[in-house]
Amino acid sequence: MHLIIDIGNTQTKIALFEQNSFISHQFVETPELKTQLEQILVNHSITASILSSVVGSLPEIELLLASKTKSFIFNHKTPIPITNKYLTPKTLGLDRLANAIALSKQFPRQNAMSIDIGTCIKFDFVSQKGHYLGGSISLGLLMRYQALSFYTAKLPELNPIENPLLIGTNTQKSIHSGVLLGMQSEIEGIISRYSVQYSELKVVLTGGDHNYFAEAFKNSIFARPNLTLEGLNEVLLFNE
What we know:
By secondary structure, the chain is of the alpha/beta class. It has two domains: 1-73, Nucleotidyltransferase, domain 5, CATH 3.30.420.40; 81-240, 2-Layer Sandwich (Nucleotidyltransferase, domain 5). It contains seven helices and eleven strands. It has helices at residues 33-43, 59-68, 94-106, 141-150, 171-197, 211-214, 227-239, and strands spanning 2-7, 12-18, 21-28, 48-53, 70-73, 83-84, 112-117, 120-126, 131-139, 202-206, 222-223. The protein has a six-stranded mixed sheet with strand order 6-9-8-7-10-11, with helices on both faces. Helix 6 links the parallel strand 10 and strand 11 (222-223). The longest helix is centred in the last third of the chain and has 27 residues, at 171-197.
């Protein structure tokens, strides 16, 4: 069984895979990570593990995994099953690279793009040749709400809602319309531009806030909430 640990900007995910099959996952507060991992290692037969962290190294966690499993630390030097054409691989977010790897596995020999909606919106593209070319980074959902409040004197900071009105009839509804429908239009526009250049484009929606947009794109986009975890498991399979 494979143990996958994905430490992001705002949350940490732990997942279990049996070869290519997703078993389960859980969200963990980073201070509790070591305790949770110790329990998993006792309760499950883990043969290999991979740790991906966007917040830097965690020596205590790395030591624990190395002592109990065949462990890998995912970084820009890790062998991967696709060709990385990004010009500055050292600065590339590991979650973006993992998404690209999962895309290539799901859509072999096809043009594909992931849209990861979390702290930021990350668009990442893999060509039909299996080459990761890059993408773009934009403000995420909460960032947009926070920025409107922070940079103005009177606008409130709101939490996202589902199904915002096109025409906001008060300040709160106008903010929801601007943030959520603005993001939806941004996503539609980026997809449209890629589709002009790359034929038969496959698109996958993922990330912690993808659910706010899944309904709007349900007929044209595949939703895979665990895309990053799937990509990390592919890296583990490739190196095991």
